[in-house]
């Protein structure tokens, strides 16, 4: 394996000295080991951007409530932790639940300690203590953002403004993925120029991560070994995906990005 920490140090500039950067670099630069259980990743692709450009989501296992019927109620929570001297962290939950209309409809919220925030065509509820924001999406979907217990205040409203709610609404029509083992279909979502960090958040750690060319080129080869004996090889340049190929078990190579 090459200098995995090097690629993540570059990706996380300009906060390379922060504890968050060190933790993220350690996770993303660690090669996946044979037989190792896949880490928990994003259940839907590309819905949660970094907060303030440098706090990246760490995902909890998605939850599907089978008591209400498979696929009717589901969610995933992501945590953003600043890892500063003072506790500063918040959670974002993407969810679908038929009860949301009763919980967050205008009638239900009329006596709650909240103010209304207009987010384009949508209206969000912001708690007056600034520790919670809820953005209803239709009758059965919502984004819930709240400060972790004992945390200092966080810029929840600013983060809520950064989200693409049309994209979230479309994604939440389908249940979350719960198996994060990479397959060939895992890489269907990517296109040339997509973020290298987005690659890690969706596909997970590569089997090997190798530097290509000189250190100044900041180019890396991410090799994902799949269960069928084939490989997906991703070449990144700086912070972006440059190319992606599939190498079958018989050695046949196919470009995945035209």
Written overview of the protein:
- The protein has 258 residues and is an alpha+beta fold.
- It folds into two domains: 4-37 and 180-255, no CATH class; 58-171, 3-Layer(aba) Sandwich (Protein Transport Mog1p, Chain A).
- 19% of the residues lie in helices and 29% in strands.
- The chain has seven helices and 13 strands.
- The protein has helices spanning 4-11, 19-29, 100-104, 106-109, 156-161, 165-171, 196-203, and strands spanning 58-59, 63-64, 74-81, 89-96, 114-119, 122-127, 132-137, 141-147, 208-212, 219-225, 231-237, 240-247, 253-255.
- Strands 1, 2, 3, 4, 5, 6, 7 and 8 form an eight-stranded antiparallel β-sheet that branches. A five-stranded antiparallel β-sheet has the order 9-10-11-12-13, with helices on one face.
- α1 (4-11) packs across α2.
- The chain is elongated.
- The two termini are 28 Å apart.
- Mean pLDDT is 82; it is low at 1-28.
Could you give a quick summary of the protein structure above?
This protein has 7 helices and 13 strands. With 258 residues, it is an alpha+beta fold. α1 (4-11) crosses α2.
Radius of gyration, in angstroms, nearest whole number:
20 Å
Largest sheet: 8 strands, antiparallel
CATH topology of the largest domain: Protein Transport Mog1p, Chain A
Secondary-structure element string:
HHEEEEHHEEEEHHHEEEEE
CATH architecture of the largest domain: 3-Layer(aba) Sandwich
Q: Structural class given helices, strands, pairing?
A: alpha+beta
* Number of helical segments with 4 or more residues: 7
């Amino acid at each position: 394996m090459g200098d995995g920490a090097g690629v993540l140090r570059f990706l996380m500039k300009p906060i390379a000295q922060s504890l968050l950067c060190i933790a993220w670099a350690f996770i993303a630069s660690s090669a996946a080991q044979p037989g190792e259980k896949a880490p928990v990743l994003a259940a839907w692709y590309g819905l949660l951007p970094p907060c303030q450009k440098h706090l990246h989501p760490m995902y909890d296992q998605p939850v599907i409530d089978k008591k209400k019927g498979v696929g009717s109620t589901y969610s995933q929570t992501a945590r953003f932790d600043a890892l500063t001297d003072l506790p500063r962290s918040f959670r974002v939950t993407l969810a679908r639940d038929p009860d949301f209309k009763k919980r967050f409809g205008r009638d239900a919220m009329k006596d709650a300690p909240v103010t209304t925030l207009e987010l384009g065509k949508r209206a969000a509820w912001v708690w007056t203590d600034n520790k919670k924001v809820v953005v209803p999406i239709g009758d059965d979907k919502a984004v819930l953002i709240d400060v972790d217990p004992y945390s200092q205040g966080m810029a929840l409203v600013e983060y809520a403004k950064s989200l693409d709610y049309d994209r979230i609404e479309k994604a939440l029509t389908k249940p979350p993925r719960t198996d994060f083992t990479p397959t060939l279909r895992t890489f269907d979502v990517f296109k040339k120029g997509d973020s290298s960090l987005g690659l890690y958040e969706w596909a997970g750690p590569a089997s090997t991560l190798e530097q290509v060319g000189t250190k100044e080129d900041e180019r890396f080869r991410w090799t994902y070994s799949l269960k069928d004996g084939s490989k997906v090889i991703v070449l990144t340049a700086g912070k972006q995906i440059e190319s992606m190929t599939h190498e079958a078990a018989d050695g046949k190579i196919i470009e995945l990005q035209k």
